[in-house]
Amino acid sequence: MEIRLNGESRFIDKVTNLSVAGLLEMEQVASPEMVAVQLNGEIVDRGTYQNTMIVDRNEVDFLYFMAGG
Amino acid sequence: MKADRFEDLSGVRCPLNYAKTKMLLSNMESGQTLEIILDDGPPIRNVPGSVQQEGHVILCQEKQGDQWNVVIKKV
Amino acid sequence: MVQLTDTQLDRYSRHIILQEVGPEGQEKLMNARVLVIGAGGLGSPIALYLAAAGVGCIGIVDADVVEISNLQRQVIHFSSDMQRPKVESAAEKMRAINPDIEVNTYKIYLNASNIQEIISGYDFVLDGTDNFATKFLINDACVMAGLPFSHGGILRFDGQTMTVLPGHSSCYRCSFRQPPPPDAVPSCSQAGVLGAIAGMLGTIQAAEALKFITGAGTLLTDTLLTFDAKNMHFRRVSLKKRSDCPLCGENPTLHELEEGDRATCDLSA
Q1: How far apart are CA C146 and CA C249, in angstroms?
Q2: Which residues of C touch B26 (CB under 8 A)?
Q3: Please, what is the end-to-end C-alpha distance for chain B in angstroms?
Q4: How many other CB atoms sit within 10 Å of the CB of residue B40?
Q5: Which CATH class for the B5-73 domain?
Q6: What range does the domain containing A42 cover?
Q7: Facing residues of A60 across strands?
Q8: What is the pLDDT of residues B26-65, one digit of tens each?
Q9: Burial zone of C151 (CB within 10 Å; 0-12 exposed, 13-18 middle, 19+ buried)
Q10: C16 vs B contacts (CB less than 8 Å)
Q11: pLDDT, block means (10 residues), chain A with 69 residues
């Protein structure tokens, strides 16, 4: 399938039933707690990462927490 | 024709001459006229065009010696 | 009636000749009251540009003193300012740039019991703080007070900012919900920052404040602007005001300010 991840096109093969949690893992996001995930413009509740599925043509944005000033 | 306001901007460099013109216009009523004196060279090449771009009307522009008389109608 | 002296006309001429600012916009800046929270990496360029722009009254909040490790990016402080309160050092530079402005200094840590009093009376707030607890506190207090503000954050080579118009656009909590658990926050060894990043983000925040005051252009509302300076890649992510936001949603559950854990990896130092 093809998704848009952080504004860029991404082909994902050999994966069925990709969840938000799975995508975070696949993208090697070291601290998922430091990311808010937006799926098709809606923030995904943290408790539902395991059972929120990503399908073809979804748009996913990782919004990183940044505390520095 | 006598303008409602008059300002001699001779010797005032760009873009301060334009800033002063804008300041004067902002304190005038719509339809009122402002006559300014500008030096030849960059001032006359720049100020009337900039004034026009903001929607005001240049009623007349006349060379008198080394300087220019410009009459502006506030939009 | 816009009244500017010849000196002011000259000083602010590059604003005045901008169609979107003009004498009227400059007058708005001169009558504006803006609060800068944090006199560090972001607060430095923010405070310098707001002062230079002639923002009439600028408040600056910071409890810390200047340390040598600040000087790599906190450009409002000089080597000769070591151990001086940051707000004092900052105010001195701001007044030196523009003696026309009034600077209010607050040498304190913001908390749930003092923030409301400090932000009241300002027209716009800029978050230049270095920890999540204060970022959420600023968001919550500003949304509760209906006070527009600019959120900003930097880390390593990255920066992010959004502008919040309470009641009209999404707030920081709409997207980020709650501070991350302290053990997930990058440890000191991971929390470096390229100095110039602070300038890049801080000047964007300052520009948002100037645009808000003058009404020029469109703001970064419902938009998170992020950049990755390692590849100099900028991106805008559209955000939505969430109806289930605990703060600004339809059935808010947050009615009082929370006292968070301000623990930081000393990014300000």
Answers
A1: 14
A2: 2, 22-24
A3: 18
A4: 13
A5: alpha beta
A6: 2-64
A7: A5, A39
A8: 999 999 999 999 999 999 999 999 999 999 999 999 999 9
A9: buried
A10: 19, 22-23
A11: 96 88 95 96 95 96 95
Question: For residue A54, which amino acid is it?
Answer: I
Q: How many CB atoms lie within 10 A of CB C219?
A: 20
Write out the two tokens for C57. 């009254």
Handedness of CA C70, C262, C135, C156 (dihedral sign): positive
CA neighbor of C34 nearest in space, from C17, C11, C51? C51
Is the CB of C153 less than 8 angstroms away from the CB of A38?
Answer: no
Q: How far is C121 from chain A (nearest CA, A)?
A: 24
Region of C53 please: left (phi>0), alpha (psi -120 to 50) or beta. Answer: alpha
* Helix extents (H) in C59-131: 86-97, 115-119
Q: Are C265 and C191 in contact (CB under 8 A)?
A: yes
In this structure, are residues B34 and B24 in contact, taking their beta carbons and an 8 Å threshold?
yes
Dihedral sign for Cα atoms in the order C139, C145, C146, C147:
negative
Name subunits touching C (3+ CB pairs < 8 A). A, B
Q: Is the pLDDT assigned to residue C262 strictly greater than 90?
A: no
- The label of the residue with tokens 């605990």 reads C246
Assign domain C32-238 to its CATH superfamily.
NAD(P)-binding Rossmann-like Domain (3.40.50.720)
Is the C-alpha dihedral spanning C234, C237, C238, C242 positive or negative? Answer: negative
Instruction: Assess if residue A45 is contained within a domain.
Output: yes
Q: B22, C4: Cβ pair inside 8 Å?
A: no
Q: Is C24 in CB contact (< 8 Å) with chain B?
A: yes
Q: What is the pLDDT of residue C183?
A: 84
